[in-house]
Amino acid sequence: IGVDPNGFDSAVFSRDGRLLAMSKTGGQTWVQETETAKIVCGPFQVEGGAWGMEFVPDGSRLITAGPGGT
After folding, report:
1. Cα–Cα nearest to 66, from 18, 20, 29
2. Long-range pairs of 24-27 with CB within 8 A, sequence gap ≥ 24
3. How confident is the model at residue 14 (pLDDT cuts 50, 70, 90)?
4. Of 6, 30, 51, 61, which is least surrounded by CB within 10 A?
5. In terms of pLDDT, which residue wins out, 46 or 1?
6. Sequential DSSP letters for the chain
7. Omega into 43 within 30° of 0, i.e. cis?
8. Better-scored residue on pLDDT, 51 or 70
């Protein structure tokens, strides 16, 4: 998955900075390690794109919000 700064709706770091979640404009979303850039979850589709995202405090889950109601 290439990095296209013009094609992202949302990006967020986990509280400890170890993980980065990104969502492209079309809704393709994934989580990767910040140190290695290895994708650890996804890509998965968020209907309508993820306009907002937040990791739960322990970093074990990602919450997304967008027009699709996810």
Report:
1. 29
2. 24/49, 25/49, 27/66, 27/68
3. very high
4. 6
5. 46
6. ----TTSEEEEEE-TTSSEEEEEETTSEEEEEETTT--EEEEEEE-TT--SEEEE-TTSS-EEEE-TT--
7. yes
8. 51
The contacts of residue 21 (CB under 8 Å, 6+ apart) are: 10, 11, 12, 14, 29, 30, 31, 53, 55, 62
User: Which residue has tokens 């937040």?
Assistant: 54
